[in-house]
Amino acid sequence: MTLAWEYEPDATHVVGEADPGFAAEVEKKADELVRAASALYLDGSSYQGIGPGVATAYVPGGMLEYLTAVRQEHL
After folding, report:
1. Residues spanned by the domain of 47
2. What does the mean pLDDT of the chain come to?
3. Do the beta carbons of residue 46 and residue 28 sit within 8 Å?
4. Is the CB of residue 1 less than 8 Å from the CB of residue 73?
5. Side-chain-side CA neighbours of residue 44 (13 Å)
6. How far apart, in whole angstroms, are the C-alpha atoms of residue 17 and residue 48?
7. Structural domains of the chain, count
8. Tens of pLDDT, residues 48-74
9. Quick one: CA dihedral 52, 29, 74, 36, positive or negative?
10. Cα angle value 18/25/41 (rounded, 5°)
11. What is the pLDDT of residues 5-27, one digit of tens each?
């Protein structure tokens, strides 16, 4: 199982005309969150607990909300 991040529904909807530096910080934080989730949920498809739900992360210039979907496989 490979964890990944994606804009939902797409990058234009999420970051629109945001400053490119801010968008880069969001993407950097998303990469960090994926690495952390990959270490915490080694086999997400067999995870039985309640997922962590929506969380907030702060980056230079703003914040983002994210959802860790533990059992969802990335295609």
Report:
1. 11-67
2. 82
3. no
4. yes
5. 20
6. 39
7. 1
8. 777 788 999 999 999 999 988 776 555
9. negative
10. 125
11. 888 888 888 888 888 899 999 99
β-sheet bridge partners, residue 66: 55
Backbone angles phi, psi at 47, to 5 degrees: -65, 130
pTM: 0.76
The encoded tokens of residue 13 equal 């909807």
Of the candidates 62, 61, 1, 4, the residue with the CA atom closest to the CA atom of residue 30: 4
Inside any domain, residue 2: no
Q: Is residue 24 part of a domain?
A: yes
Residue 62 in any domain: the answer is: yes
In this structure, are strands 54-59 and 62-67 parallel, antiparallel, or unpaired?
antiparallel
- 74 lies in some domain: no
